[in-house]
Amino acid sequence: MSFVVAIDGPTSSGKSTLAKIISKELGFTNIQTGAMYRSVAKILLDNNIQIIDIEKISEILGKLDFEFRDTEDSQLVIVNGKDVTSEIRTKEVTDFTSEVASIQQVRERLTQLQRNMAQKKNIVMEGRDIGTSVFPNADIKFFLMANANVRIQRKIKELRENGEDYNYQEVAESVYKWDKDAIYRSQGALKRAPDAICIDTSTLTIDDMKNIAINQIIEKQKQIKSLELEI
Ligand code: DC
After folding, report:
1. What is the 3-state secondary structure (H, E, C) of 59-85?
2. pLDDT of residue 226
3. Could you state, in chain order, the average pLDDT of each consecutive group of 10 residues for the chain (231 residues)?
4. Calculated CA dihedral for residues 206, 212, 218, 220, nearest 10 degrees
5. Which residue has its alpha carbon closest to ligand 1 atom 7?
6. What is the reported pLDDT for 227?
7. Pick from 186, 170, 197: which is nearest to 108 by CA?
């Protein structure tokens, strides 16, 4: 049986960092669902498709093929055979993704693909609705958070690393909007699952964050094993 680790939380709360290190440590497949929503947004932008054009969007959704390819120090996102890793991280794509992620057909199709990806594989999946909607029965769920200032600083740094320079105010307004869009969308809204373990990453080092999560996962694996032995 496969083991599913679900990680949810708002923008720049540390999800991707945590998912990357624990999937490496445990030898699990890491699936960044945000990259999937970003990729759909990028395809719509490139082809000048409006979000109300559900027919064209459905056509695109039917042909989507994702691959997450691990390299020594990162993970490449390959969509329909093309490496889109950096181009889906621009602020323009991020802004548009927030809208695209509210389209019901997009959420349904990506949820279906995410569930398929997890078949017969141990996975770490990070996003906004993993523990609530995609895998409500995940073996373990984490909900990450961090204070707004820390998250804005992290986003500024991430954008800079990708060659884009925005000031604090611009990024603060965007982060606020992305979170609001995610919290208030009617389907797949950002919400902490009642059984999720909360981690405030504001002042944690990456090692601290990793140790907290790994200890919880090991504990959970032991519990599952002892239950299996009892049966
Ligand atoms: O995690 P991220 O910043 O790469 O996510 C990009 C966008 O996709 C963000 O607007 C939230 C949305 N998203 C979502 O709606 N559901 C998910 N499971 C993952 C991301």
Report:
1. HHHHCCCEEEEECCCCEEEEECCEECC
2. 86
3. 93 96 95 97 97 97 94 90 96 96 97 92 96 97 98 97 95 97 95 97 97 97 86 70
4. -130
5. 34
6. 83
7. 186
Q: How far apart are CA 128 and CA 218, in angstroms?
A: 24
Q: Which residue puts its alpha carbon closest to atom 18 of ligand 1?
A: 127
- Tally of residues, the chain: 231
Q: Is 135 in the pocket of ligand 1 (CB under 6 A)?
A: no
Write down the pLDDT at residue 34.
97
* Pairwise CA distance, residues 156 & 149, whole Å: 11
Alpha carbon distance, N-terminus to C-terminus of the chain: 15
Q: Report in angstroms the alpha-carbon separations of 83 from 19, 78, 95, 98, 173.
A: 20, 4, 20, 21, 30
Q: Is the CB of 102 under 6 A from ligand 1?
A: no
**C-beta of 12 in contact with ligand 1 (< 6 A):** no
Query: Per the structure block, which two tokens stand in for 214?
Result: 């790994």
Give how far Cα 79 sits from Cα of 31, 55, 84, 106, 225, Å.
13, 20, 7, 15, 37
Nearby residues of 21 by Cβ (< 8 Å), 6 or more positions away: 206, 210
